[in-house]
Amino acid sequence: MADLLDDLRSALPDGAVLTDPDLLRGHQRDEADLCAYGMPAVVVRPRTTEQVAAVVKIAAAHGVPVVPQGARTGLAGAANAVDGAIVLSTAALNRILEVDAVNRIAVVQPGVINSAIAAEVAKHGLRYPPDPGSWESSTIGGNVATNAGGMCCVKYGVTSEYVLGLEVVLATGEVLRTGRRTAKGVAGYDLTRLFVGSEGTLGVITEITLGLRPAAEASLTMVALFPSTAAAGAAVAAISAGGLSPSLLEFLDQTHLIAIETHRPMGLRTDAKALLLAASDTGPRAAADLARIAALCEEAGADEVYAATDAVEAAALLQARRLAHPAMEQYAAESFPTGNGGLIIDDVAVPRSALAALLDGTEKIAAEHGVAIGVVGHAGDGNMHPNIVVDRADPASVASCRRAFDDIVSLTLSLGGTCTGEHGVGLLKREWLAREIGPVGVRVHQAIKAALDPDTLFNPGKVL
Amino acid sequence: MADLLDDLRSALPDGAVLTDPDLLRGHQRDEADLCAYGMPAVVVRPRTTEQVAAVVKIAAAHGVPVVPQGARTGLAGAANAVDGAIVLSTAALNRILEVDAVNRIAVVQPGVINSAIAAEVAKHGLRYPPDPGSWESSTIGGNVATNAGGMCCVKYGVTSEYVLGLEVVLATGEVLRTGRRTAKGVAGYDLTRLFVGSEGTLGVITEITLGLRPAAEASLTMVALFPSTAAAGAAVAAISAGGLSPSLLEFLDQTHLIAIETHRPMGLRTDAKALLLAASDTGPRAAADLARIAALCEEAGADEVYAATDAVEAAALLQARRLAHPAMEQYAAESFPTGNGGLIIDDVAVPRSALAALLDGTEKIAAEHGVAIGVVGHAGDGNMHPNIVVDRADPASVASCRRAFDDIVSLTLSLGGTCTGEHGVGLLKREWLAREIGPVGVRVHQAIKAALDPDTLFNPGKVL
């Protein structure tokens, strides 16, 4: 132990090896519920790729696992520490190294905050679209490690579609470069994509080459209110079948509408069972596209449809959607007088045609287990977050919520869906991953893990 | 050998085990030049996944390699037979299993021709964008195995962006399912992407789930003619830097213009040093977008810019571009009175900012080695095909062309590019792949190959 710390201190600059107990406790876990976490031996904050490689080599020599951590905003426990581990924080790997406007590329270190990249590339008339809910606090390294999603993904795709190349420190301490700076390229296996979404289990990402887009166009925004969640689900299927490509298509159920109005009154109708928030950024056609979406919502049973009258109202509606998570946290906290109320956040995705069935089934599951479940999500992708209200101090409540959680994932798989649409597997869904991909899929995962990290140095216990 | 054939015949239906020598010769190679090929022991045409699995198990039991083959339109030798191998043809795995318009998905077997998928999904108002030059003859399995590109990629991306999931027969004979039918999903490692572009070296793809797009909109088309290739390259960089997203941005040099006019006179100006063909499908904004592209071309030095007056003229221009390959083949054949003239087709990609330097450098390389090189390609992606005219009967010509070929790839890497933009590595560029990805990259490739195919059953000698 002393040896380990000595070796780390001699390899890293002053202040980069942290053992203060309060600080160690602060690095034990991400924001996931229901996930175990341990006490790390040390937190390191390397500033360069070479320092990361040195840490990995020292860890390997001492047989001590390495847990990479960004901002710990994850929701599946993938960044949770294990006892005695080296937590490798990317906090000091926080530079934007390059923005190349001609080639629409940015090269960044993993510790840069998502919104900082968006702001920097906007200066060059460019856009980095992926916008997870945590975009103002999460790091690009964490986004890449979990293949983060967000609200823009319905039209602009998830993180992986923007990662052109990576620099990764392997378990050997060697530095691997994957991918390219060109728009196209098919040289060899797609190692870039193998590392994206691998949740820190295959290597430590130390540099990311991002492909960018031209700046977004102004969008128009509308709202549709429904008398049932199933009607909202049917509207989403009709919009998809109608060949429309909204730039935003978000779902909020009544529980979330109430939670948001309680958290910050914004004039949302809390008597509606569901709300769809849609936007179109197709320029001169946006109004016509929104009109078609509005008509499809009405055909599906919406009892009120209205457009945002201006950009201020549109921004307020988007802000209401962004408040769903903190509002629901407050709602959960206030649901139990004990003060132990909280939220178990689920993340599932189904084919869009199955969205109504998922929403219907989730209501039934809530009733069956006697728990409150609010649902919010990226309707256009079929990606829903059923948020389960739990009394953490009450084992019976936790048990009921866990059963509801499992039933929702089980329902999702039976609908042809996936156990995680954007949050990842981490610790939270290892069993569900195994069920989803089956024994052959598990064996292939294990074979790849063994090929790249035979001694399970990186993030042990996660994903697999 | 008799044992092998007996085992295959008992596992496959009548007519699926082929040993006719002419037929074996017809399955020796794809369309790549400079690549070795052998004589297979047998060609099999399984009709089901179970039959593919049976073939793989028999091959493993006999220690005989399996070379998967689609339509053999590849340009890197990835489908070339090795002596004594089982060539596994996907010709009888040729069904479109499902088109789901609500979820914008098609499920297909690997032997379906690209254009047949495009035609079928069009009936549902949907589009499968990737359009390699071979789209009317190449199979989707081959497109997936090589991660094929095409002309639409500048705006709509390459094959991999449309592959949601795969069914793959592994070296064990087990059947792996990867990916999903949902718009989003992050469950586990991205095995789908690992198999896409792996050129038949990791498994046999037996089913493909494709994500589709709404039908394309009508586009407007324009032409710009330049007094130098470098000016055309500069125009491409300016278009990219200007935030424009043309739906087509193709380059033809003077050699190709002459070849096309010789092959089929279409009224192209053969005195121009380079032509850019651009299109925009942004609906009501397309004319304005094309006007901006035209202005940027003029600023870069174009001496003539004109728009197609109608869809017929636009289609003729596109047809001229599609004729570049056969026209250049004819040009090459007629370049030598021996009748042994042919084409060595290269495929490189550079950052768009380096396109002018690549074009300039290629001209210098041609002069230096005394060979004729025509360049055509997907300018908007920086993906060029320098086509080298060779006299196959003349060893000195072959040697000069090989040196020019290598010099072009070397130049590409020095410009921050990749040794293959869309054709793949196959046999043609194994050494160049190794140089591009370096020893760490090669070791990771080998580790993954060994994890999935430890006995090198699949497509030995390709890629690595």
Kindly describe this structure.
Chains A, B: Its cofactor is FAD. Chains A, B: Residues 36-215 form the FAD-binding PCMH-type domain. Chains A, B: Belongs to the FAD-binding oxidoreductase/transferase type 4 family. Chain A has 464 residues and is α+β, with helices and mostly antiparallel strands. Chain A has three domains: 2-89, Uridine Diphospho-n-acetylenolpyruvylglucosamine Reductase, domain 2 (2-Layer Sandwich), CATH 3.30.43.10; 96-214, Uridine Diphospho-n-acetylenolpyruvylglucosamine Reductase, domain 3, CATH 3.30.465.10; 220-414, FAD-linked oxidases, C-terminal domain (Vanillyl-alcohol Oxidase, Chain A, domain 3). Chain A has helices at 2-11, 21-26, 49-62, 114-122, 140-146, 153-156, 191-195, 229-241, 254-263, 286-299, 311-322, 324-333, 355-369, 395-414, 430-452, and strands at residues 17-18, 42-44, 66-69, 86-89, 96-100, 105-108, 126-127, 163-169, 175-179, 204-211, 213-214, 220-226, 248-253, 274-280, 304-307, 341-345, 348-349, 373-378, 383-391. In chain A, strands 12, 13, 14, 15, 16, 17, 18 and 19 form an eight-stranded antiparallel beta sheet that branches. The first copy, chain A, has a five-stranded antiparallel beta sheet with strand order 5-6-10-8-9. A four-stranded mixed beta sheet of chain A has the order 1-2-4-3. The longest helix of chain A is centred in the C-terminal third of the chain and has 23 residues, at 430-452. The first copy, chain A, starts with a helix and ends in a 12-residue tail after the last helix. At the A-B interface, strand 9, helix 7, helix 8 and helix 15 of A face strand 9, helix 7, helix 8 and helix 15 of B.
